[in-house]
Structures are given as C-alpha cells and as structure tokens.
Amino acid sequence: MTEDDTNTNTFLNAFLLVACFGLALSTILNVDSGMTRGWTVSEQAMRIPLDNWSSYESSLNTQPIVTKTTINVIIYLLGDWLSQTIFVGNSPLEFDARRTARNGLIGLVFGPLVHQYYEFSDSILPVEIGINRFYKIMMDQTLYLSIKCSVYIVGVNMLAGESWEYSSGVAKDKIRDIMVTAWKFWPLVHCVTYGFIPARHRILWVNCVDLFWNAILALKTSAATEEEDGVIFEMIEGDIYNKIDTNSTESRGDLAKNGDDEYIVNQQNKDNDLPALILESDANELAEIISKISDFDESPQEAKTKTM
After folding, report:
1. What are phi and psi of 278, to 5 degrees?
2. Given a cut of 80, is residue 308 above it in pLDDT?
3. Can you name the residues that pair with 263 across neighbouring β-strands?
4. What is the DSSP annotation of 253-273?
5. Partners of 278 in the β-ladder
6. Contact 32/44 with Cβ under 8 angstroms?
7. I want to staple 59 with a disulfide (CB 3.0 to 4.6 A). Which of 7, 67, 160, 282 is the partner?
8. DSSP state of 37
9. pLDDT at 223
10. pLDDT for 162
C-alpha cells in the first residue's frame, strides 16, 4: 500500500469516527431538546443522564426488539473497533472499516435472535427458583455459546468472501479455544446477571459486558490469519536455512563458488539472523515458496482488507 493510500484510509477512518461519535454525542446531549430553556448548566448536566435513561426505558417498552437490536449493533461495531485499535495498542485510526461494518451486520442479525433466546430462557427457567440460575448459566455456556460463536465466526468469514468450507473450518479450529476463554469470563458475569440485575435490564447489562467479550471474540477470529502467516514464514525461513550453511565462510560472503552457479551476496546483511546468500540454481524452488505467500494472501480476504 502506498503512502497516499494510507493517508486516504486514515482520512476516511477519521471521518467515520467523527461522524459516528458525533452523532452519538449529539443524540445524548439533545435528549431534552426544546425543554432546556432557562435551565442552568448544572440542571442540564443532572437531567441529561436521567432523561436518556428514561428515553431508553420508554423505547424498551414500545419497541423492545428494535431497541435491543440497535444496542447490539452499536456494541458489535464498538467492540470490533476497539479490538483493532485500543485493545492491541494501535492508533484509533488504524482499523479496517469494512471488517467493522461486517461485525455490525452480524450484530444486526443477532439482535432479534438474542432477544428471543432470553425470552425463551426466562420462560422455561424462571430465576425466581434459585436452582434455575445455575441451569441458565449452564445453558448459556454450552448450547447458546457454542451455536452463537460458531455462527459468528462463519458469518464474519463468509462476509469477507471466504467459502463455506474455509469458514466452517476456522470455526471448528477456534471454537474450543473460545469456549475455554468464555468459561473463564461469563459464568461470573452471569452470577451477577441472574442474581442481582432485574429482568428488565438484563439485556442492557449483558450488552455492556458484551462490549469487551465481542472485542475478545473479534481478536480470536482475526488471529487465524496471523497464525497462518506465521506458519508460512516459518516454513520459508526453515527452507532457506536448510539450503544455506550459515557457519560456512561461503555463506558469509567471504568466498565465491567456482562453477556455473552464481551467488547473490549482500555483505551488509552477513551478521543478520537470515543469511543473504541465495543460489540462483534454486530460484525455481524459492519461487514456489514465495508463490505460497501470494496464494495465501489471495485466499483469505480478511488478510487483504487488514493491509489496506
């Protein structure tokens, strides 16, 4: 990617962030629009949080599925953005907007489904019966979690242009690790969910905690590309080391080989970890190795978008 492309992406990402956060801030601050005439600054500061909460509850009463789905989309967008930036120590502008949009679309699909799941869970396992809290946590951490995470991983990869075979393969490879991570995270959270949070506000509570969980999940999913990259580069590095005797004087560029084969010697790199000596007679084999990188880069579309 050229410097101009990088600057363009940075500008577009900055525009998206300003637009999204600006819209959110404007919505929050203008909740009392038309009612604040004569109010002092302290009165407005006190009323804005309370009135936003009242607006949320009113929307929850009149449009529960739309409200919960909207929150779900926001959480998925914010979680993926954090997983690409703050959570990994990158600049807030260093993110793949298309990947974030794909996660938002997944959140849009999951919103109504999650609502229906919690309604169903409350109907068959009412928390008023103490032991049901344990059963609900077990159901959340087994059936619900495995299905939701598998669908998430497959959905994200297929939206990135991958095949069903590749996407389902990634899900099979990653689901166990994700389930183990979830068992370290969610049971304690759900002790609070079903023990202290009123049923009316459980979805909001879970969605707020979901902000961090979705960031973890997004990191786990995107890690597949980096891991496969590492395997290929380890293979290449090993191949070159096998072909070159790093302890020989020839590999350090001190001698030239007599014969038809010619060496390309970079004296400046002779103390580097990877020798800079390559046989021209092995050019074809080396080209095959390099082509594996090209094939890999062209296969996972996610890797493409991350480098743009």
Report:
1. -135, 130
2. no
3. 279
4. TSS---SS--EE--GGGTTSS
5. 264
6. yes
7. 67
8. T
9. 61
10. 93
